[in-house]
Amino acid sequence: MNTKTARSLRLLPFAAAAAAACGCSDEAQRQPNVIIILADDLGCGDVSALGSQVISTPNLDRMCSEGLNLTDAHSAAPTSTPSRFSLMTGLYPWRNSEAEILTGDANLLIDEGQPTIASMMKDAGYTTAAIGKWHLGLGRGTIDWNEEISPCPNDIGFDSSFIIAATVDRVPTVYVENGRVPGLDPADPLQVSYTENFPGEPTAISNPELMRMKWSQGHSCSVVNGIPRIGYQKGGKSAYWNDEDMADVFLEKVRDFINENKDKPFFLYYGLHQPHVPRTPHSRFVGSSGMGPRGDVIVEADWCVGQLLDLLDETGLSENTIVIFSSDNGPVLDDGYVDQAAEKWGDVSPALPYRGGKYSLYDGGTHVPFFVRWKGHIEPGSESDALVSQMDLFASLAALTGQKTPEGLDSRNVLDALLGKSDEGREDLVLGSNGRLTYRLGDWHLIPPYEGPLKDATNIELGNSDSWALYNLGADIHEDSDLAAQHPDKVREMQERMAAVTGNVLK
Description:
Blueprint: H1 3-22, E1 33-39, H2 58-66, E2 68-74, H3 80-89, H4 117-123, E3 127-133, E4 160-164, E5 175-177, E6 191-193, E7 223-224, E8 227-228, E9 232-234, H5 246-261, E10 266-271, H6 292-314, E11 321-327, H7 341-345, E12 370-373, E13 382-389, H8 393-400, H9 415-418, E14 428-433, E15 436-441, E16 444-447, E17 469-472, H10 488-502
Parallel strand pairs: 1-10, 1-11, 2-13, 3-4, 3-10
Antiparallel strand pairs: 2-12, 4-5, 6-9, 7-8, 11-12, 14-15, 15-16, 16-17
Helix pairs in contact: 2-6, 5-6
């Protein structure tokens, strides 16, 4: 059997699955491209189509009007690394004890042999790429940023990658392309440390005059491009990114990837860096929102989404491309820099109508925007209240492409819900990462007791209390009324079910 024939036979299961999903004959169906766009710290209250009164997001609104709005969709956890780990692996983040917010020099969380959504799509015949924010670690052991870094995204299912290692506020402030830092000067090697500063190197504390942006908490280490960061960095100056140009750099890489692969099936993971701190919009967007830097970078991110949708329309790919948009966790205003976000928003929470936000056990920690656009296949302007998780994209795309979901995953096949063909999603869902979990069962949300402050430095309600809390989101969307005392049987039922999933003995 020749290679071409073998590949055709391998794709036959996909043709049948995709044809069934969209009601088309397999002769007329080419496997659809899939693009996942993941924003960073964007809340439901940041999207005008979802009710924002302070920000206009015409391109995200366009995704709603041209596709499906899933109104009960969740990241797996209220912080970045754990939720991205789940999206990528189809596993709850608490199954990996290291799946917490990573430093910029952390090692890759995912073993090379572990199935990922990218490796599954690659097995289905797709060309795969990761572009944008990564924050899942790189390499093994101490990373030498001046040599090839392995493993990297290319070792867990991606054919190509152009990423930032962690977050924009963490060193190293360089891009990593296919495991290498582009633009490095061998005479000025890049060094990174998260334990101690390099001798003689300035910091935000020792040399505040270097800063063009002030920090409010947590960002007092190396100053790069006038911005104080988390972690220490020395050398590598020729490879530093320009913060204001980052959106354009990523978008250009996205355009190149789509144009180069438009004649074959492709899978793209596009990690936006907005509106995570530091918020540094390109000059084209400064002042565009009237809501300061945070508002301006949301407008910038919205523009990026619009540019991608326009490209798909212009290249005739929209009817054969599924675009999924979401955010890695709930929103936050003051997350370590003085940029007037809290003052500009005032009493308006970007998590509305949900309580909490990033870091929180309340619903606003994981309740995120989730739109699916597939022209000609999903009813424009449709809406679903199916309970879904980003973790479910693994099993759902496996079903779409005719691939077998590996045993042991927590991902569930909710493909019909993602395509607007059913309002049936998951029955239940554990939310959170190591040591801080909550449990959803239908409209019920159970929050175990946890020690700690009621609010953190970001002024977000964390949901900590000394007793079990129970909320009915169907009747109380903002979780204002704790019903645990009124429904002890429901609390007990949910404790038992949560324990059955997590393996923990909950009292």
